[in-house]
Write a structure and sequence with these properties.
The protein is mainly α. The protein has one domain (about 5-15, about 30-325). It is built from 13 helices and 2 strands. The protein has helices spanning about 5-15, 30-50, 60-85, 85-100, 105-115, 120-150, 155-170, 185-195, 215-240, 245-260, 260-270, 280-295, 305-325, and strands spanning about 205-210, 210-215. The chain has a two-stranded antiparallel ribbon. α3 (about 60-85) runs antiparallel to α11, α5 (about 105-115) runs antiparallel to α9 and α6 runs parallel beside α9. The longest helix is centred in the middle third of the chain and has 32 residues, at about 120-150. The radius of gyration is 21 Å and the shape is globular.
Amino acid sequence: MLSLSTVVPSLAAAAGEGTTRFASFDVPLWVWAALVGFLAVLLIVDLLLVHRTAHAITFKEAAIESAVWVGLGLAFTFVMLAWQGGGAAGEYLAGYLIEKSLSVDNVFVWAVIFSYFGVPAKYQFRVLFWGIFGALVLRAIFIFAGVALIERFDWVLYVFGVFLIITAVRIARHSEAEVHPDKNPVLRLVRKVIPSTNEYDGQKLFTIKNGKRLATPLFAVLILVETTDVVFAVDSIPAILAVSREQFIVFASNAFAILGLRSLYFLLAGMAGKFRYLNVGLGVILGFVGTKMLIAEWYHFPIWASLLIIATVLTTAIVASLRADKRDPRPDDIPEPLGPGAVEAPEVELPPQGR
């Protein structure tokens, strides 16, 4: 029977097994099908059972759901341990921690987007559901493409490493570009091509008005959520490829990390000001994995060392931020999502269809 007492020694032993290479193994088609099927079941249960009716998600509800999603993500470490051993389990856990930590920025960007469009709180979950669904598909494409590029062209590894170090400096300095939804080129193009309305019609992405099919603001929000995820994936996918090159491990760690982003959003969206040092921690993590990529030809970091560094940096950044906020509270930089008592955008009163 697997337990924590068997996980830690197994991960440590992995350092002696492979200080020169990453975990590599053949994945049968049925295993891929089982993983994708399990993820699909989780999404369906979450949409049709847990969140069947539209409602504003409370902090308590978000905390419980976040705990469940994190528990599922961490539990998959034991699956990897039993199936492929400590090396693969360690790479999965390192990839999961990297993606989870880098995804926090996603949460705060979503808060800006929802605030800009005045999306009613009870409709935000549905947008994020389809956003996460699209993100899984896009991440799978990026992962397979990234691994294929590295295997075919060795120099791509150094491009990724340099890119991550530059990104690390920008994030640590908090000099990344601000989010301006109205200036998003993809959104502008969509609005030119697809007829749109500024009025909501429940949770619908499209509505019928005066006999015409129009995209609601929720469709515009979904487009922005997907395009911002592409931007963040450009950082996170190369970062995870620094700790694992096995496509199954990279995809699984990504999938389990981003599945819990919806509940994490409702938990943290109004707390951006409390994590003032998080950007520094994320910068250090990206700088570490970028350096790891650049020196991979000469030295392969043991997976337990990567895990220790990532976990220590992330914990230190969070604890330091919370202590600083306790001494000197800082107003949140990102406005809170609209709550149940907030003024919501008007919904469309549709005329009955037909004669």
